[in-house]
């Protein structure tokens, strides 16, 4: 497959891994990675989102999780791929452009902004915390082995390329990739906002 384009249905069977944000920005507070089914279905939070710290260890209460819908079929989502968490362009330009414009995205009806990279869920969670993200308005997820990015042809050297996809209730309304090194013209917040 050579990328996605407007009017395509978002592909079936796409899932990512992530650690749900808890509101705690302490990098030593860990969580459990869970599957986020981007295409359809339901997902469960881990047994508890309540955590306490004991040094660098986490202790979780055990209680039943509520099933929550996590499907792109029922949301307007901006999916943003970057080559790597904490890398210079990704940190200094890409993620900060979305943080600075978050209210504009919400005003245009965006339910979630999701950053994906091939980094593991713990690194992606730490990246969100390092940027002060405490809730699910911006999620940081793992594209395991850049599998989704490979499937749409937007992977290079084992890493996700820099791209953005707008999905409105399961339908792709915008998809483009930045091919120029360090450019966020097509996948940065300003370039995506004008497509909403």
UniProtKB/TrEMBL annotation:
Name of protein: Peroxisomal membrane protein
Keyword Oxidoreductase belongs to the record: yes
InterPro entries: PRX5-like, Redoxin, Thioredoxin-like_sf, Thioredoxin_domain
Function noted in UniProt: Thiol-specific peroxidase that catalyzes the reduction of hydrogen peroxide and organic hydroperoxides to water and alcohols, respectively. Plays a role in cell protection against oxidative stress by detoxifying peroxides.
Family classification: Belongs to the peroxiredoxin family. Prx5 subfamily.
Annotated GO biological process: cell redox homeostasis; cellular response to oxidative stress; hydrogen peroxide catabolic process
Active-site residues from the entry: 90
GO molecular function, one term: thioredoxin peroxidase activity
Alphabetical list of Pfam families matching this protein: Redoxin
Keyword terms, alphabetized: Antioxidant, Oxidoreductase, Peroxidase, Redox-active center
Keyword Transmembrane helix listed: no
